[in-house]
């Protein structure tokens, strides 16, 4: 089945710097890759997603890139702010059957003022 | 336009009791997914339901766990004879027909004493 690996597990950056989180997936048939942000005590919130027919997508300070050949996708946050501090999860969608999401292990991002 | 709702937000049970977790989808969403999150871990798929039908329960333990999504009312995840290992955050996510995006509720944090 699908397996998603996410790195790093923790990331600390200075406010204003950029943060990059990387994920790899195993099932080449996966075709949808969302990123979620989870704040303490809350549910995951979708921040950006990308489909396999697109190589890059950007929404203000957040961008996601996808390399289908390498089965690799990344989240880029520019001009980081304290409110970006949270746990970020990548996911890949299984296209067969339930179309469930398989999640990475998460990255705890800390923005230092 | 209310988001996905879950209740209770926190639930404490003693070993051997039953836990009932409820999920009310967003308006117009007929697909429900339940995920479990252990402390400091990612989300793991449990079960996928579409109105009145269980589509995929491959991630749900065969014993003590059951789920339903009746024609009227919320989806319910039921855990019978809870054990300490059931302590976790349980999230539901819902989506519309033909769309990939899953929206998560705030979760139910179950503590088994």
Description:
The complex is a heterodimer of chains A (113) and B (113). With 113 residues, chain A is mostly beta strands. Helix content of chain A is 0%, strand content 56%. In chain A, the strands form two sheets. In chain A, strands 2, 4, 5, 9, 10 and 11 form a six-stranded mixed beta sheet that branches. In chain A, a hairpin with a 4-residue loop joins strand 7 and strand 8. Chain A starts with a strand and ends with a strand. The relative contact order of chain A is 0.33. In chain B, a hairpin with a 7-residue loop joins strand 9 and strand 10. By secondary structure, chain B is an all-beta fold. In chain B, 35% of the residues are buried. Chain B is 0% helix and 50% strand. Chain B contains no helices and eleven strands. In chain B, strands 2, 4, 5, 6, 9, 10 and 11 form a seven-stranded mixed beta sheet that branches. A four-stranded antiparallel beta sheet of chain B has the order 1-3-8-7, with no helix packed on it. Chain B is globular and about 40 Å long. At the A-B interface, strand 4, strand 5 and strand 10 of A face strand 5 and strand 10 of B.
